Amino acid sequence: MKEIIAYEMIYNKPLKYHECINCVPFQEKYWNEYMKIYNECFCKMRTALEVEPINFYYEYFQIKDKTNDIFLYLQEDVIIGAVSCFGNELDDLIVEKSFQGQGIGQKLLLWGMNHLKEQGYDEIILHVAEWNQNAVKLYLKNGFNIKKRERVR
Q1: How far apart are CA 85 and CA 140, in angstroms?
Q2: Number of other residues whose CB lies within 10 A of the CB of residue 24
Q3: Is the pTM of the predicted complex or chain greater than 0.90?
Q4: Measured between alpha carbons, how far is 89 from 82 in angstroms, rounded to an integer?
Q5: Per-residue model confidence as pLDDT tens for the chain (153 residues)
Q6: How many C-beta neighbours within 10 Å does residue 9 have?
C-alpha cells in the first residue's frame, strides 16, 4: 500500500477578486455528468496512490446530502467544472478534461474563495494530496500557505 501525504492549506488574507465566471448550485439533473467528470479528474491520482475504488462516485445517494455545497460552472447547460464549499473549506475542485489547462481551475478556485468570503469566513482551508503537484502549485500561486503536512496512509 502506497504512502499518502496530504497538505492542509490555509488562506487568511483579504481577497481582491472580481468574479469572471458564475457558478450555480448543483441540481440532480447534472448527476451523471458530474459523476463522470469527478471520476475522470481523480482517476489518475487514485490509481497512482492505490486508493480504492478508483471510480469513487457511482450512485446519487453518495452526494445527496452534499448537493447544497456543490457549485457548477456551466456553459450552454454543460458542466465545465465544479467546486464544493463546506463551511470554510474548499473541496473537490474539478474541471472537465477537455477544458483543463485553460485557467478554469484557477477561476473556480477564486470563485469558491470569493463565495466563502461572502459567507463571512475570514479563513479558508483546503486539503490536497502532495501527489497532486499541479493543484498544490495553483493553491500556492493564489495565496494559500501550507499549514500542515500529514501522512494520511
Answers
A1: 19
A2: 10
A3: yes
A4: 14
A5: 899 999 999 999 988 766 689 999 999 999 999 999 999 999 999 999 999 999 999 999 999 999 999 999 999 999 999 999 999 999 999 999 999 999 999 999 999 999 999 999 999 999 999 999 999 999 999 999 999 999 999
A6: 22
